[in-house]
Amino acid sequence: MLRLLPGIPVSLRSTLFEPFTTLGKAGGTGLGLAIVRQIVEAHGGRVDCTSSEAGTRFSLLLPQRLPAQVMPEAADVGTLSSV
Fold this sequence. Notes:
2 helices; globular; 18% helix
């Protein structure tokens, strides 16, 4: 059964990816989307959210390869050195 939920309130959209932003879900901490954003951005990507009364869509965009400037050690992946 497909259940459509209302979108995210306009008042929360600007802080949606900030820690402790929550809609008051029982047992929720408001950390989930903040953690998602941190991980995605650490890998050179971005997370976007579009929301309306019909529902909400989250998009994760990640690069196919990790840019060396984001994580310099990524440039050395595949290089083995002997000790």
